[in-house]
């Protein structure tokens, strides 16, 4: 598996589960606003699992809940 570059400034995790940005425009824009990284629009659209609280994760799965918002940042 190829390693992917983190999309958040200060993030060094390149191995954990990746969560793709939502396709729904409103939630997609909310994620961009939350992470405050304007360059994100030009790069791969995913966040690593560590940027989501446990409440965002589906029990017994590697996926996150459909309306989850990223929380854990290094900025």
TrEMBL record:
- Domain of life, source organism: Eukaryota
Could you tell me which InterPro entries the record lists for this protein?
Answer: THAP_Znf
Which segments constitute the THAP-type domain? Answer: 7-71
Q: Does the entry feature the keyword Metal-binding, yes or no?
A: yes
Ordered alphabetically, the record's keywords are: DNA-binding, Metal-binding, Zinc, Zinc-finger
Q: Which Pfam families match?
A: THAP
Question: What is the protein's given name?
Answer: THAP-type domain-containing protein
């Amino acid at each position: 598996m190829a390693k992917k570059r983190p999309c958040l400034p200060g993030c060094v995790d390149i191995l954990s589960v990746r969560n793709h940005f939502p396709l729904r425009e409103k939630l997609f824009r909310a994620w961009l606003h939350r992470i405050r990284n304007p360059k994100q629009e030009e790069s791969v659209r995913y966040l690593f699992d560590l940027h989501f609280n446990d409440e965002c994760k589906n029990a017994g799965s590697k996926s996150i809940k459909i309306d989850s918002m990223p929380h854990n940042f290094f900025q």
